[in-house]
Structure formats: C-alpha cells, structure tokens
C-alpha cells in the first residue's frame, strides 16, 4: 500500500503558497497526492506543478455535480493528470432521500460511463452512511451496504474513510475485508473525541491501526491516503507526523 495525502488537509496553505506547499509534501517523503480542487489552476498547470515537485496524483475528489454537468471536462482533466480514480467525496441528504439503492444505481450509471473512458469511480463515506436505512431495505440495513449492493463491483469502488466508519459505529477492519478488492483506497484518518477539533495525526487517536492495516494488506489496498479534516496546529506538521507513523508500520 502506497502512502498518499488528501490535499484538502492542506487547503489553507495551498491557497496561499501552492508550489511551496507541494515541495514540503515531497520533502516529507510522500510521492503521491489526492487532489481536491484546482485552486484556480488548470489541469495542465497542476500536471506541471506535480511533475516539477516529484509528485503524482492517482486520485481526486470530484463533486457529483461536476460529474453530472461537466462530465467531459472531468474526464479530460483526469486524463491530463493521469488519474486512475475519480472519487465522490460527499453528498447532501437530498441525493439519498429517495433511497440508498436508487442512489447506488445512479452512481453505477456514472461509473459505467467512466469505466468506458478508462477511469474508476469510487465513493468516499462519512458517518451518516451507517445510520440504519429506512428505504431500500428492512430498516436495519446500513446505507453503505445498500449502496454497494445496488451497484456493480466493476463500476463502483470504495474509498473507505476508516475514522468515519468507526465514528459511525462500524468496524474499519471488517469493512475493508467486506469490500475486499472493491476498496482500492482508504483514508488513513485518526481521531480523539476528547479533542477539539477531534482530528489528530495517525497513531495519536483511538483507531486501532494494527488490525486495520493487516486487513488492508490482506485485501491489497493500493493507496492509504492521509487526511485530517481540521487540525489544532499546523496541518503540514500533522501530515509529517502521520507519514512517520504509517511508515513505521511498513507503509511507503
């Protein structure tokens, strides 16, 4: 499993000093990044910035609205950057009010189209996907299970956010094993509910990483993406500390 970083973690720093922040990311030892927005630059400019700083992007968070209303540009940008995975990062309640099964079918359709264009679609969870679904099941099923049951494993992959799974009451290692090769990416996120904000560097929170990482190795997860939604200190320091921790666990 290769280590990456979700650049949303560094959004404020990137907004001020983009190229310099990318250099810091590379200096930490990271070779891969996951994009979340272009900060006013084009895909071609990002390609050049990443190459100049010895970085590669294999995945990006792309809003569902962009996939629905600017599909051709999403694909063109993805190919310019050399992406493999297009990831839906979040949805509002209006998208699943009609049922998680119907939403899964919608993603399946988009994923099928992306697959024809040489890309893979993945969905990134939060905690609300673990509130028992009332639609598309018997009222006891977890929405994330309903979602993936409604879509083909060939056309909808998962980027499992391991901290959000635990916050939602799920077992991160069990979910990695449940989805198996359908989850080629995970978010390596840790948290401490006694802190505000609760997000902390990897190994500093309550996620039990040894069984989770063992599950990731068993199922062949390709990318472990470091992410903090917020941080009390400097986010780049949290990324550095997380990288050191996960490197000590054998990730590279």
Architecture, according to CATH? Alpha-Beta Barrel
CATH superfamily: Divalent-metal-dependent TIM barrel enzymes
Report mean pLDDT, rounded to a whole number: 96
How many DSSP H or I helices?
A: 11
Please mark out the parts with pLDDT under 50 across 5 or more consecutive residues, or reply none.
Answer: none
- Care to count the β-strands? 10
- Biggest sheet strand order reads 1-2-3-4-5-6-7-10
Give the domain tally: 1
Output the CATH topology.
TIM Barrel
Query: How much helicity do the residues have?
Result: 40-55%
Question: From the alpha-carbon coordinates, what is the Rg to the nearest angstrom?
Answer: 17 Å
Largest sheet: 8 strands, parallel, barrel
From the spread of the alpha carbons, the general shape counts as globular
Strand content: 15-25%
Structural class: alpha/beta
Order of helices and strands: EHHEHEHHEHEHEHHEEEHEH
CATH class: Alpha Beta
* N→C terminal distance: 7 Å
Notes on the structure:
This protein has 252 residues and is of the alpha/beta class. It has one domain: TIM Barrel, CATH 3.20.20. 42% of the residues lie in helices and 16% in strands. The protein is built from eleven helices and ten strands. The strands form two sheets. It has an eight-stranded parallel barrel, surrounded by four helices. A two-stranded antiparallel ribbon has the order 8-9. Strand 2, helix 3 (43-52) and strand 3 (56-61) form a beta-alpha-beta unit. Helix 2 (18-28) packs parallel to helix 11 (235-248), helix 6 (100-116) crosses helix 7 and helix 9 runs parallel beside helix 10. The radius of gyration is 17 Å and the shape is globular. It starts with a strand and ends with a helix. The model has no long low-confidence stretch (mean pLDDT 96).
